[in-house]
TrEMBL record:
This is DUF429 domain-containing protein. InterPro entries: DUF429. Pfam families: DUF429 (PF04250).
Length: 252
Protein backbone atom coordinates (compact mmCIF):
# COMPACT_ATOMS: atom_id res chain seq x y z
CA UNK A 1 0.00 0.00 0.00
CA UNK A 2 1.21 3.50 -0.79
CA UNK A 3 2.45 5.52 2.18
CA UNK A 4 0.63 8.84 2.12
CA UNK A 5 1.27 10.36 5.53
CA UNK A 6 2.94 9.87 8.91
CA UNK A 7 1.56 11.66 11.97
CA UNK A 8 3.30 11.88 15.35
CA UNK A 9 1.32 12.64 18.48
CA UNK A 10 3.05 13.66 21.71
CA UNK A 11 1.45 13.92 25.13
CA UNK A 12 4.07 16.21 26.65
CA UNK A 13 4.76 16.34 30.37
CA UNK A 14 7.25 18.34 32.41
CA UNK A 15 9.64 15.39 32.36
CA UNK A 16 10.25 12.28 30.29
CA UNK A 17 8.47 9.72 32.54
CA UNK A 18 5.06 11.28 31.81
CA UNK A 19 5.69 11.92 28.12
CA UNK A 20 4.29 9.57 25.48
CA UNK A 21 4.73 9.42 21.71
CA UNK A 22 2.51 7.73 19.12
CA UNK A 23 3.13 7.31 15.41
CA UNK A 24 0.39 6.53 12.91
CA UNK A 25 1.12 5.62 9.30
CA UNK A 26 -1.73 6.54 6.94
CA UNK A 27 -2.55 5.09 3.56
CA UNK A 28 -5.48 5.85 1.29
CA UNK A 29 -7.90 3.64 3.18
CA UNK A 30 -6.24 2.64 6.45
CA UNK A 31 -4.23 3.86 9.41
CA UNK A 32 -1.80 1.78 11.46
CA UNK A 33 -0.33 2.62 14.86
CA UNK A 34 3.30 1.72 14.33
CA UNK A 35 4.81 3.12 17.52
CA UNK A 36 3.63 3.90 21.03
CA UNK A 37 6.17 4.62 23.75
CA UNK A 38 6.38 6.41 27.06
CA UNK A 39 9.38 8.02 28.76
CA UNK A 40 10.25 10.24 25.79
CA UNK A 41 13.12 12.69 25.95
CA UNK A 42 13.20 15.82 23.76
CA UNK A 43 15.81 14.15 21.56
CA UNK A 44 13.44 11.23 20.94
CA UNK A 45 10.71 13.58 19.78
CA UNK A 46 13.05 15.51 17.50
CA UNK A 47 14.36 12.26 16.02
CA UNK A 48 10.80 11.10 15.26
CA UNK A 49 10.37 13.92 12.73
CA UNK A 50 13.93 14.01 11.43
CA UNK A 51 13.06 12.36 8.11
CA UNK A 52 11.08 15.45 7.12
CA UNK A 53 7.89 13.69 6.04
CA UNK A 54 6.12 13.71 9.41
CA UNK A 55 3.46 15.96 10.88
CA UNK A 56 3.77 16.61 14.61
CA UNK A 57 1.01 17.31 17.13
CA UNK A 58 1.96 18.24 20.69
CA UNK A 59 -0.45 18.34 23.60
CA UNK A 60 1.12 21.40 25.22
CA UNK A 61 0.56 25.18 24.94
CA UNK A 62 3.02 26.74 22.53
CA UNK A 63 2.82 30.23 24.06
CA UNK A 64 1.47 32.44 26.82
CA UNK A 65 -1.33 35.05 26.77
CA UNK A 66 -0.20 38.41 25.38
CA UNK A 67 -1.77 40.22 28.34
CA UNK A 68 0.07 37.98 30.80
CA UNK A 69 3.41 38.56 29.09
CA UNK A 70 2.84 42.33 29.02
CA UNK A 71 1.79 42.42 32.66
CA UNK A 72 4.76 40.38 33.91
CA UNK A 73 7.15 42.55 31.93
CA UNK A 74 5.64 45.77 33.33
CA UNK A 75 5.27 44.46 36.89
CA UNK A 76 8.88 43.32 36.89
CA UNK A 77 9.96 46.91 36.31
CA UNK A 78 7.36 48.77 38.39
CA UNK A 79 5.06 47.02 40.94
CA UNK A 80 2.77 50.08 41.29
CA UNK A 81 0.61 49.83 38.20
CA UNK A 82 -2.36 52.15 38.52
CA UNK A 83 -4.52 50.33 35.95
CA UNK A 84 -4.42 46.99 37.79
CA UNK A 85 -7.36 46.16 40.04
CA UNK A 86 -6.60 42.46 40.59
CA UNK A 87 -10.26 41.50 40.12
CA UNK A 88 -11.54 38.31 38.49
CA UNK A 89 -12.51 39.91 35.18
CA UNK A 90 -9.10 41.55 34.84
CA UNK A 91 -7.28 38.36 35.85
CA UNK A 92 -9.13 36.33 33.23
CA UNK A 93 -7.41 38.28 30.46
CA UNK A 94 -4.08 37.10 31.85
CA UNK A 95 -5.19 33.52 32.50
CA UNK A 96 -6.45 32.51 29.05
CA UNK A 97 -5.12 32.90 25.53
CA UNK A 98 -7.33 33.83 22.60
CA UNK A 99 -7.25 30.21 21.43
CA UNK A 100 -8.39 29.05 24.88
CA UNK A 101 -11.49 31.22 24.51
CA UNK A 102 -12.18 29.65 21.13
CA UNK A 103 -11.78 26.20 22.68
CA UNK A 104 -14.25 27.19 25.40
CA UNK A 105 -16.77 28.25 22.75
CA UNK A 106 -16.31 25.02 20.79
CA UNK A 107 -16.40 22.38 23.55
CA UNK A 108 -18.12 24.20 26.41
CA UNK A 109 -15.30 24.11 28.94
CA UNK A 110 -12.08 25.95 29.64
CA UNK A 111 -8.74 24.25 29.00
CA UNK A 112 -6.08 24.50 31.68
CA UNK A 113 -4.35 27.86 31.94
CA UNK A 114 -0.73 27.99 30.80
CA UNK A 115 -0.09 31.05 32.98
CA UNK A 116 -1.70 30.02 36.29
CA UNK A 117 -1.84 26.19 36.37
CA UNK A 118 0.94 23.62 36.68
CA UNK A 119 0.63 23.24 32.92
CA UNK A 120 2.98 26.20 32.72
CA UNK A 121 5.87 23.97 33.80
CA UNK A 122 5.15 21.66 30.87
CA UNK A 123 4.97 24.68 28.57
CA UNK A 124 8.48 25.66 29.67
CA UNK A 125 9.66 22.26 28.50
CA UNK A 126 7.62 22.77 25.33
CA UNK A 127 9.51 25.99 24.65
CA UNK A 128 12.77 24.09 24.86
CA UNK A 129 11.38 21.37 22.59
CA UNK A 130 10.29 23.79 19.89
CA UNK A 131 13.72 25.41 20.03
CA UNK A 132 15.35 22.02 19.48
CA UNK A 133 12.95 21.24 16.64
CA UNK A 134 13.82 24.52 14.94
CA UNK A 135 17.56 23.88 15.39
CA UNK A 136 17.06 20.48 13.74
CA UNK A 137 15.40 22.09 10.72
CA UNK A 138 11.79 21.25 11.56
CA UNK A 139 9.66 24.36 10.87
CA UNK A 140 8.02 25.72 14.01
CA UNK A 141 4.86 27.78 13.51
CA UNK A 142 2.67 28.35 16.56
CA UNK A 143 -0.44 29.28 14.53
CA UNK A 144 -0.83 25.91 12.74
CA UNK A 145 0.73 27.19 9.53
CA UNK A 146 3.12 24.28 8.98
CA UNK A 147 3.70 20.70 10.12
CA UNK A 148 3.55 21.46 13.85
CA UNK A 149 0.22 21.64 15.66
CA UNK A 150 -0.83 22.30 19.22
CA UNK A 151 -3.49 19.67 19.91
CA UNK A 152 -5.95 18.94 22.72
CA UNK A 153 -6.86 15.23 22.84
CA UNK A 154 -9.79 15.62 25.24
CA UNK A 155 -11.25 18.40 23.12
CA UNK A 156 -10.86 16.36 19.93
CA UNK A 157 -12.65 13.41 21.50
CA UNK A 158 -15.57 15.59 22.60
CA UNK A 159 -15.95 17.11 19.15
CA UNK A 160 -15.91 13.62 17.65
CA UNK A 161 -18.81 12.71 19.92
CA UNK A 162 -17.13 10.57 22.58
CA UNK A 163 -17.87 10.66 26.30
CA UNK A 164 -14.60 11.66 27.97
CA UNK A 165 -15.81 11.48 31.57
CA UNK A 166 -13.03 10.23 33.82
CA UNK A 167 -10.90 8.73 31.06
CA UNK A 168 -7.66 10.28 32.32
CA UNK A 169 -7.92 8.54 35.70
CA UNK A 170 -9.84 5.35 34.87
CA UNK A 171 -8.37 2.59 32.71
CA UNK A 172 -11.81 1.04 32.32
CA UNK A 173 -13.06 4.26 30.75
CA UNK A 174 -10.08 4.26 28.37
CA UNK A 175 -10.84 0.67 27.36
CA UNK A 176 -14.43 1.64 26.59
CA UNK A 177 -13.26 4.64 24.60
CA UNK A 178 -10.84 2.55 22.56
CA UNK A 179 -13.57 0.03 21.76
CA UNK A 180 -15.87 2.86 20.71
CA UNK A 181 -13.09 4.39 18.66
CA UNK A 182 -12.50 1.12 16.82
CA UNK A 183 -16.22 0.77 16.11
CA UNK A 184 -16.27 4.23 14.55
CA UNK A 185 -12.92 3.78 12.81
CA UNK A 186 -12.49 0.15 11.69
CA UNK A 187 -9.70 1.39 9.42
CA UNK A 188 -7.54 2.12 12.48
CA UNK A 189 -5.19 -0.75 13.41
CA UNK A 190 -3.82 -0.41 16.94
CA UNK A 191 -1.88 -3.66 16.69
CA UNK A 192 -0.20 -4.77 19.90
CA UNK A 193 -0.36 -1.27 21.41
CA UNK A 194 -3.95 -1.37 22.63
CA UNK A 195 -2.94 -2.65 26.06
CA UNK A 196 -0.49 0.20 26.65
CA UNK A 197 -3.06 2.78 25.57
CA UNK A 198 -5.49 1.35 28.12
CA UNK A 199 -2.95 1.08 30.92
CA UNK A 200 -1.35 4.50 30.53
CA UNK A 201 -3.41 7.66 30.08
CA UNK A 202 -0.40 9.44 28.61
CA UNK A 203 -0.09 6.78 25.91
CA UNK A 204 -3.81 6.98 25.18
CA UNK A 205 -3.64 10.76 24.75
CA UNK A 206 -0.61 10.41 22.46
CA UNK A 207 -2.72 8.21 20.15
CA UNK A 208 -5.52 10.79 20.11
CA UNK A 209 -2.92 13.49 19.51
CA UNK A 210 -1.69 11.59 16.44
CA UNK A 211 -5.28 11.34 15.16
CA UNK A 212 -5.80 15.06 15.82
CA UNK A 213 -2.61 15.78 13.90
CA UNK A 214 -4.13 14.04 10.89
CA UNK A 215 -7.02 16.51 11.03
CA UNK A 216 -4.50 19.34 11.08
CA UNK A 217 -2.52 17.91 8.17
CA UNK A 218 -5.69 17.59 6.07
CA UNK A 219 -6.80 21.12 6.93
CA UNK A 220 -9.86 19.81 8.78
CA UNK A 221 -9.78 22.51 11.44
CA UNK A 222 -10.73 26.13 11.89
CA UNK A 223 -7.63 28.32 11.55
CA UNK A 224 -7.23 31.63 13.37
CA UNK A 225 -9.31 34.48 12.00
CA UNK A 226 -7.20 36.76 9.82
CA UNK A 227 -7.45 39.56 12.35
CA UNK A 228 -6.13 37.30 15.12
CA UNK A 229 -3.35 35.60 13.19
CA UNK A 230 -0.67 37.79 14.74
CA UNK A 231 -1.92 36.91 18.22
CA UNK A 232 -1.96 33.17 17.39
CA UNK A 233 1.60 33.37 16.10
CA UNK A 234 2.67 34.55 19.56
CA UNK A 235 0.24 32.71 21.87
CA UNK A 236 -0.27 29.50 19.90
CA UNK A 237 -3.37 27.99 18.31
CA UNK A 238 -5.17 24.80 19.37
CA UNK A 239 -6.08 22.64 16.38
CA UNK A 240 -9.53 21.19 17.05
CA UNK A 241 -10.98 18.89 14.37
CA UNK A 242 -13.68 20.42 12.21
CA UNK A 243 -15.57 17.37 11.03
CA UNK A 244 -16.24 13.78 12.14
CA UNK A 245 -13.63 11.18 13.00
CA UNK A 246 -14.57 9.31 9.83
CA UNK A 247 -13.34 12.25 7.72
CA UNK A 248 -9.74 11.43 8.64
CA UNK A 249 -9.93 8.74 5.97
CA UNK A 250 -12.94 9.85 3.90
CA UNK A 251 -11.38 13.24 3.18
CA UNK A 252 -8.58 11.69 1.15
Amino acid sequence: MLLTMRTIGVDLAAAAPGTALAEIVWTDDAARLTRLEIGMQDADIVASVSSGDAWLGVDCPLGWPDAFVDFIRAHHVEPSLGSVDGGADWRRTLVYRHTDRVVRDRIGRWPLSVSTDRLGVTALRGAGLTSRLAEAGFPVHRAAEGRLFEVYPGGSLRLWGFDTTGYRVDATRRAILIDSLRERAPWLDLGAFRALAVTKADAFDAVIAALSTRAGALGLFEPPASGMLGVARREGWVVLPDGPLEALIAAR
